[in-house]
What we know:
Elements: H1 3-17, H2 23-35, H3 37-56, H4 64-77, H5 90-93, H6 107-119, H7 126-137, E1 146-147, H8 151-157, E2 178-186, E3 189-198, E4 201-209, E5 216-223, E6 226-233, E7 236-242, H9 246-258
Antiparallel strand pairs: 1-2, 2-3, 3-4, 4-7, 5-6, 6-7
Helix pairs in contact: 1-2, 1-3, 2-3, 4-6
Amino acid sequence: MNKGECAEMTLLIQAGVDGELAPAEAARVAAHLDQCPACADTESQLLALSGRLRRELPFYAAPDALHAAVRARIAAAAPAPKVRSPAAPVWRRLSWRNVWPVAPFGAGAAVAAVALLLLLPTGGGLPDAVVASHVRALQPGHLMDVVSTDQHTVKPWFDGRLDFAPPVKDFQREGFPLTGGRLDYLDERPVAALVYGRRQHLIDLYVWPEEGRPDVAPTSDSRNGYNMLRWRQGGMMFWAVSDLGAQELADFVRLWRAA
């Protein structure tokens, strides 16, 4: 491969590991990685390092006074809410109310960055990592790499980007429409994240293979106001996370398991 291109790709790979690539750039990187073992190895090392840092570095909770000060500044800087047209696509009507209002550039953007750190879980383990990934994805431009309500578009998008084929289902008629998907990293490996809507809420469904292990019924958990359900089915591990109420999230999981 061209050395200059690989040097540029190293920077893009780093941005991709941090979830900062636009869909077009992510597709370009994926195509390069398919043809360049050296850059693919670089990506693997960066993903492993990122996972190790998340597991081993200590977390410190911000004091209550800092929480209150940051939230007050966000509220003061936030623009008035806008009413979206009911005819807009579902993925455009989904609300980010549990992350933060979008502040103006400058001081407001800096405050928003601090707010993300305050909202991320301060514990450890996979449940906290799942919620942290969900919260990070709610930043503008981070939610989806592929935007589509068609499962036959979303499923093929993962081909060549993962070493497994995630099952993709749509529940538009039942009120849980598929809106897209993205690549993510959990449990020390790349995973598929399928994005669903429910009125003004989002559901992230993380999927990765666990072949040879028995099916396990859903188990519920919650962190920082987010509900989670995890289960194993057909050699795949599933984690659903959302700010939906626990009952509605359970309804979504029942649909998925029965489909």
